């Protein structure tokens, strides 16, 4: 309760408690890599993708052109082309690519994914886009005008900060005249091997953002949160997590487990095996490896039984559905 956490910061805990400690509690910034840009990396692609989505949906909403229908799709596609041209020009200025042709190929791939995402939006029959980049407790980025300045206090015992890519509301109301809401987090990468409710502590945005919406709009009923892998690489997969009793119980277990180790003052380097390769550990892709050294995975395999028992809350989180 001493600080606000983001969903991505909490996800560091299951990968390695010490990474969580350095990133979320001590605020140690990851060392940026400096290199000549010839194509957009994963983070840069995601930033551009989100910027275009937010700008396009905001413009369509302002002009009363949401939801996108089969009849209005051609107009929306022209708006997308204009928005992408403007924001991709900004990306060229920001990154000053060293190999122009390779950079342009990267941009073309992003534009194809955005075009497909827009065409698939026509298939949505229940929910209508409402708020775009709805923030709470964050002061940076291009946020929705209705964003909250302070973090959200969740009933599971945590203060949450972040921004929901898309808040959707149903085009109908329940019998009690309550609006139905859904929180959507866009993803531009590949689909993880394990999703589930929280995916062993790695997939937290759907439930956490749904819980945040409940606090931000107490008069409405929040049905779920979802991850939408809205690119060809993610196969346009939609992963929805219901905000029900099971989901609330799982998230409460996760928060209590993290609390237990913070209260112990015990957040050691205990890297998890990589989901894609159980023979390798999270150290392989950890920005804080220069702090730990190269042998943490081997050391964890030889810890004393007393220390293993102290890691019980961590193992519980990694076993959550």
Care to give the gist of this entry?
The chain has 321 residues and is of the alpha+beta class. Helices cover 43% and strands 19% of the residues.
What is the secondary structure topology, with strand pairs?
Layout: E1 4-5, H1 7-15, H2 17-25, H3 42-62, H4 73-95, H5 100-121, E2 127-136, E3 152-154, E4 158-160, E5 162-173, E6 179-187, H6 205-216, E7 221-229, E8 237-242, H7 245-264, E9 273-274, E10 277-281, H8 289-292, H9 296-300, H10 305-310, H11 312-318
Parallel strand pairs: 1-4, 6-7
Antiparallel strand pairs: 2-5, 3-4, 5-6, 7-8, 9-10
How would you sum up this structure, described in words?
38% of the residues are buried. The protein is globular and about 65 Å long. The protein starts with a strand and ends with a helix. It is α+β, with helices and mostly antiparallel strands. Helix 1 runs antiparallel to helix 2 (17-25). The chain has a five-stranded mixed β-sheet with strand order 2-5-6-7-8. It has a three-stranded mixed β-sheet with strand order 1-4-3. The protein contains eleven helices and ten strands. It is 43% helix and 19% strand. A hairpin with a 5-residue loop joins strand 5 and strand 6.
């Amino acid at each position: 309760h001493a600080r606000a956490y983001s969903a991505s910061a909490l996800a560091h805990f299951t990968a390695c408690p010490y990474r969580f400690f350095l990133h979320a509690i001590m605020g140690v910034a990851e060392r940026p890599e400096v290199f000549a840009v010839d194509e957009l990396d994963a983070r840069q692609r995601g930033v551009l993708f989100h910027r275009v989505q937010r700008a396009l949906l905001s413009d369509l909403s302002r002009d009363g052109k949401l939801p996108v229908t089969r009849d209005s799709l051609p107009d929306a596609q022209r708006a997308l082309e204009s928005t992408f041209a403007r924001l991709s020009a900004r990306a060229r200025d920001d990154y000053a690519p060293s190999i122009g042709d390779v950079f342009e190929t990267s941009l073309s791939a992003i534009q194809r994914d955005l075009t497909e995402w827009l065409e698939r939006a026509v298939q949505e029959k229940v929910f209508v886009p409402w708020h775009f980049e709805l923030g709470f407790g964050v002061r940076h980025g291009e946020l929705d005008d209705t964003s909250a300045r302070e973090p959200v206090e969740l009933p599971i015992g945590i203060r949450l900060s972040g921004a929901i890519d898309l808040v959707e509301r149903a085009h109908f109301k329940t019998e009690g005249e309550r609006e139905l809401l859904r929180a959507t987090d866009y993803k531009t990468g590949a689909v993880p091997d394990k999703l589930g409710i929280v995916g062993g502590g790695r997939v937290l945005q759907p439930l956490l953002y749904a819980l945040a919406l409940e606090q931000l709009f107490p008069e409405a009923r929040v049905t779920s949160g979802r991850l939408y892998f809205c690119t060809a690489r993610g196969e346009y997969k939609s992963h929805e997590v219901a905000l029900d009793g099971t989901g609330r119980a799982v998230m409460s277990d996760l928060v209590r487990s993290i609390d237990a180790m913070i209260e112990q003052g015990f957040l050691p380097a205990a890297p998890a095996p990589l989901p894609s390769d159980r023979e390798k550990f999270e150290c392989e892709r950890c920005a804080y490896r220069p702090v730990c050294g190269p042998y943490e995975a081997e050391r964890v395999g030889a810890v004393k039984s007393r220390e293993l028992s102290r890691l019980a809350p961590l193992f519980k989180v990694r076993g959550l559905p």
